[in-house]
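Fold this sequence, please.
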Amino acid sequence: MADKNVLVRVPKVGDILCVDANNKKQFIALDTYDGGTLPAGYTVVGVVASRQGNQALVVHKANAAKKWSDVMIWTLSGATLTDGASHTQNFTANGVTVPITWQTSTLSAFAVAVQSYLNGQNFGGHSYRCIYDAQKDAVLLIHDTFSEWKEPTFSGVTVTRAIGEDVPQNSTAYRKSGRSIYWGSINVRRYVEWAKTSGTVPTADVPVRISAGTDAVKLVEFQQNAFCADIRNAYCIDPLNPTEDDYFRYVEAEYACEYPSNRASMAEMYRDGKDFTYRLVGKKYLASDGSQKELYPGAEYCAAVEYGADGLRKGSWFLPSKYQMGGVWSKLTYGHAGVSRANADPINRSLNAIGGSAISCASYAWSSAMFSSGLAWLCSGGGLFGGGSFCYSFMCVPCVLLDLSEGED
């Protein structure tokens, strides 16, 4: 009979992190966990998801879908806001245009004037609100119904996005092919599964080392379409008899992310998910009901995790960066066709054993890294790294980075 709840001093991917009755960290070996015989006082925390040197990235046993940003905010600026002259300009959002007139000499008065037109106005199911923020000495435009991206325009007024300003942005990803582009596959098998039936149907020759943002061609097109001759010649052992293995080679060579990587959005300055998370935590906005609400729900959710052991207390947990996600999401098999949690990758196998939340490579998941002023990096349900609008509720996985060289007393 196999041993149960085997403790290990140096954990590997899939091992389970617990806190014992003395608030000391303990690791239970992969596939030995048994909840019925867990020592008294043990609390299950999460699972080791990646290792690098003396560091272990642990994913929490629970994750949840959260928006990256609860609302969208822009600053309004320009000389006409406070020049005292009369102005009438069009405010447009979601195809609805409202003429707004003002004659103001202070920012606060301008905000009141604009709000008098926006109040109660229906922009095709969306609402916007204008306020003056005395602390920032700025006029803010807030999209309260931020369930989809609907960016407004305001003639004669400068409208500037004001979300995630403290987090550095980089929208470039490198693929193994050397191409610099804005997306790529981090879980190639998942992307292959998606592209087989949902990829493109080419209407012109498909080049080797494609530079455009076009998705991979469908499997049947790769095998039969005359426009795919060049890629068949490049990736097929026998171009006259293309196989699914040949198709996998094509997709991996053309679309797989360069990982690990030191370039662009994978460079050192974009790797620290904890730093990014705590640049967002604590930021609030004035809600339409007059209350102060958390602006960044995903970051707040991850930062709220806490346990009594050193390294696991509040302030230790974070939403991972794109780079940190890469070391985890590239290894996931749960989400692949025919894979259950019980026979999945070590991470999901252990999460299943402890009754935790799954991490599927077929689900969308947020990182804490900024893509641009309107997007954050995410891993899509097709196994791709790309940018996503802040408004969507995607999986947020709390993580903690442990230094294993410190040991326990």
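The CA atoms of residues 61 and 351 lie 6 Å apart. The mean pLDDT is 96.
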